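INTERNAL AUDIT FORM
Audit reference: QA-55
Scope: verify that the stored structure record matches its stored sequence.
Auditor: D.O.
Record contents follow.
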Amino acid sequence: MLPVPQIMVLLPLQLSRAAGGTREVEVEGKTVGEALASLRGTHPSVAHLILQESDEPRRAVALFLNDEDVRTLGRLDTPVAKGDRLSVVLPVAGG
């Protein structure tokens, strides 16, 4: 049985409060979707802000795996490897 990769989810400052003040959360999973499910299990308040009830990312949320937009890869089925970094990017409004 292969070990489940551990990856780091990088949170924007706006979500750090929901994660207890941290901007980096270690999760497990073999895909982006599994990593986000792991995040839901350990930090449900953060996951609620990132994910819809269907476990799809909210429309305005962008996810980058090692600087590549997961929408151009395999979306939630994108495989992850130990040491990968999944960045959560929220929209910024202002003038």
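Auditor finding: record pair retrieved intact. The longest strand covers residues 6-10.
Action required: none
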